[in-house]
Amino acid sequence: MRLKCLSVVAGLCFSASAQAPLDVRMALVIGNSAYPSSPLANSINDARAMGDTLRGLGFTVMELRDANKEQMSEAVARMREALRGKQAVGMLYYAGHGMQLDWRNYMVPVNARLTKASDVPVQTVDVNSVIDAFKSAGNRMNIVVLDACRDNPFRAD
Fold first, then answer.
1. Could you give the CA distance from residue 33 to residue 17 in angstroms, rounded to a whole number?
2. What is d(CA 93, CA 102) in angstroms, rounded to the nearest whole number?
3. Which tens digits make up the pLDDT trace of 42-75?
4. Is the separation of the CB atoms in 134 and 93 below 8 Å?
5. CA–CA separation, 10 vs 32, rounded Å?
6. What are residue 46's phi and psi, to 5 degrees?
7. Based on the number of CB atoms within 10 Å of its own CB, is 26 exposed (0-12), middle (13-18) or buried (19 or more)?
8. Are 51 and 18 in contact (CB under 8 A)?
9. What pLDDT is recorded for position 64?
């Protein structure tokens, strides 16, 4: 699956570079693995590999590893400002825990302590906030790749 995602991203980028070689390409790559109660083995490695691949395709890459909510939110804001007015290609690649609640998708920071559904919007990062940030920057294309382990943190064990 990861190889397929890399192939799709590479195809999109090669296609874009053939049409407009001076495009600005910027990516936010987040890899979260160090969750206290449910660590993930591969998220950091996947994010590192994606960052390297994107750099090779001409992207400027901002990387976060094992980020808390504040770091993730700040990175989204920095990307919005860096992309603003450039008619760029903006990309988010996220590897880590994710979840969906009330038809919204969330990236789970390593410092989230989710015990009830009302914790989710407060302690996680809504994927729509990234999409909105990229839209407000005026990008001509946005790519979002979520390589997320989606489970139910509220289930009884």
1. 33
2. 22
3. 999 999 999 999 999 999 999 999 999 999 999 9
4. no
5. 23
6. -65, -45
7. buried
8. no
9. 98
Neighbours of 76 (CB within 10 A): 21
Measured over the CA atoms of residue 36, residue 104, residue 150 and residue 53, the dihedral's sign is negative
SS3 155: coil
Backbone φ and ψ for 156, nearest 5 degrees, come out as -80, 130
Q: Is 77 helix (H, G, I), strand (E, B) or coil?
A: helix
> What pLDDT score was predicted for residue 11?
59
The sign of the dihedral angle between the CA atoms of 28, 144, 57, 136 is negative
131 token code pair: 């999409």
The rounded distance, in Å, linking the Cα atoms of 32 and 23 is 29
Burial 125-136 (b: 16+ CB within 10 A, else e): bbbebbeebbee
- Residue 30 in contact with residue 95, Cβ under 8 Å? yes
Q: Which amino acid, residue 93?
A: Y
What pTM was computed for the model?
A: 0.84
CB contact at 8 A, 58 and 9 = no
Q: Is the pLDDT of residue 126 over 70?
A: yes
At 60, list the tokens. 């400027």
